[in-house]
Amino acid sequence: MCATDINHYLENNQNWVKTVLSQNEEYFDVLKEGQHPKALLLGCSDSRVSPSMVLGSELGELFIHRNIANVVSHTDLNFLSVMQFAVENLGVRDIIVYGHYGCGGVKAAYENNSNGLIDNWLANIKDVIRHHKSELNSIEDQNTRLNRLVELNVLEQIENIKQTSIYRQAIDSGNKLKLYAWVFDFNTGVVHDLKKKYNIKPSIV
């Protein structure tokens, strides 16, 4: 992408500011007072899955953290710090793990080739593959198998959140955190709630 293309984003920004102010002159006055997000969202870094655009959220509605394949790693101080700040400082009670079908990170983990530094990160997903090996091997179509792995990875990250000290301390303090497992489908643009899709009991997700 050339410099001219990048500068186009600045032009878009200026046009957006004009549009926002034409609809609400006090928009930025309210925004600068502080944030009160409704949920913490852990999504994939894939450029095609922008949560704000797909979910139609406004500025300040979602506290967002993104990484390769939406992984909750217990050694990732970045995400753990984000989660702690969201729960303890911002008072967030809803946490969404937001994956997507066609995830390159999930596919790379499944193919198990050498990819360099990222292999250390993908080891988290390889654990998911190992835990669900029988189910995955029973699916003949590879695309369907990878889609199921995407879902299993999202559900596994929900379980990883439950094992964090942040989650446990919140529960022990009487703060009921609600966890959501969502997957975005490029083919339709629809975000699937895995809890409803597979009739998972609320106590699990």
Protein model, in words:
It is an enzyme of class 4 (lyase). Its EC number is 4.2.1.1. Pfam families: Pro_CA (PF00484). This is Carbonic anhydrase. Belongs to the beta-class carbonic anhydrase family. The structure is a single chain. α5 (104-111) crosses α6. β1, α3 (51-55) and β2 form a beta-alpha-beta unit. The protein has two domains: 1-33, no CATH class; 34-197, 3-Layer(aba) Sandwich (Beta-carbonic Anhydrase, Chain A). The protein has a five-stranded mixed beta sheet. It has helices at residues 3-23, 27-31, 51-55, 77-89, 104-111, 118-131, 133-137, 142-162, 165-172, 194-197; strands spanning 39-44, 62-67, 94-100, 178-184, 191-193. It is an alpha/beta fold.
Q: What can be said about this structure in brief?
A:
The chain is of the alpha/beta class and 205 residues long.
Helix percentage: 40-55%
- Low-pLDDT stretches are none
What's the shape? globular
Q: Count the beta strands.
A: 5
CATH superfamily name of the largest domain?
A: Carbonic anhydrase
Features:
10 helices, 51% helix, alpha/beta, 2 domains, Beta-carbonic Anhydrase, Chain A, five-stranded mixed β-sheet, coiled coil, single chain, 205 residues, globular
